[in-house]
């Protein structure tokens, strides 16, 4: 998982346990990030991020990690929002509430999820543009099947796609 603390994750309340978000982060890594980076590049980034004692990440990996975390943060929240305040137990499906807080309504969750998805896809576009601009720094990515498929089937930028079809903000969302 490419976040060690809730402070690293950034968009959740600091009292949230990062372990509570872990399944959503891991799911988003597999569903979105791995499809862009490829398994080998993702595992290499994870290994360097997890290294203990932690040697300083190279400038290339610090830049890559920042782009990946931005996309991952948004896409993990997209996946997590409908499930965070729901519990399944002996009584069935129940919502969590407290005296201080009440769950957000369905409309609030819908609009927040939509924005997280848009931001996540925009971040994936930014990640791909970054990787393309620095592809010599990431040979594991350029040697991956995902890179070959990406080059084969995808238009390389939102701008290029928009020349043919109006994609509004990015080709992922379209």
Overview of the molecule:
This protein has a two-stranded antiparallel ribbon with strand order 1-2. It has helices at residues 6-9, 18-37, 39-50, 59-80, 106-133, 139-142, 145-153, 158-162, and strands spanning 86-89, 92-95. The model has no long low-confidence stretch (mean pLDDT 83). The chain is mainly α and 174 residues long. The chain contains eight helices and two strands. Helix 2 packs across helix 3, helix 2 (18-37) packs across helix 4 (59-80) and helix 4 (59-80) runs antiparallel to helix 5 (106-133).
Outline:
With 174 residues, the chain is mainly alpha-helical. Helices cover 60% and strands 5% of the residues.
Give a topology summary.
Elements: H1 6-9, H2 18-37, H3 39-50, H4 59-80, E1 86-89, E2 92-95, H5 106-133, H6 139-142, H7 145-153, H8 158-162
Antiparallel strand pairs: 1-2
Termini separation? 28 Å
Helicity range = 55-70%
Residues in β-strands, percent = under 5%
Rounded average pLDDT: 83
Assign the structural class, choosing from mainly alpha, mainly beta, alpha/beta, alpha+beta, or little secondary structure.
Answer: mainly alpha
Low-confidence stretches: none
Shape: globular
What Rg is obtained from the alpha carbons, in whole angstroms? Answer: 18 Å
Number of strands: 2
Helical run tally: 8
**Reading side by side through the largest sheet, how are the strands ordered?**
1-2
Largest sheet: 2 strands, antiparallel
Summarize the helix and strand pattern as letters: HHHHEEHHHH
Key structural traits:
mainly alpha; single chain; 8 helices
């Amino acid at each position: 998982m490419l976040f060690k603390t809730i402070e690293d994750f950034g968009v959740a309340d600091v009292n949230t346990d990062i372990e509570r978000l872990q399944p959503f982060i891991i799911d988003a890594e597999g569903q979105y990030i791995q499809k862009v980076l490829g398994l080998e590049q993702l595992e290499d980034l994870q290994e360097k991020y997890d290294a203990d004692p932690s040697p300083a990440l190279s400038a290339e990996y610090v830049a890559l990690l920042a782009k990946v975390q931005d996309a991952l943060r948004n896409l993990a929240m997209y996946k997590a929002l409908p499930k965070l305040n729901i519990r399944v137990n002996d009584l069935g499906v129940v919502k969590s509430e407290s005296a201080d807080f009440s769950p957000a309504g369905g409309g609030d969750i819908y609009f927040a999820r939509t924005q997280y998805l848009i931001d996540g896809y925009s971040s994936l576009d930014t990640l791909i543009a970054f990787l393309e601009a620095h592809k010599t720094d990431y040979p594991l990515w350029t040697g991956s099947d995902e890179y070959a498929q990406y080059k084969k089937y995808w238009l390389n930028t939102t701008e290029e796609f928009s020349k043919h079809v109006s994609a509004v903000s990015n080709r992922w969302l379209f």
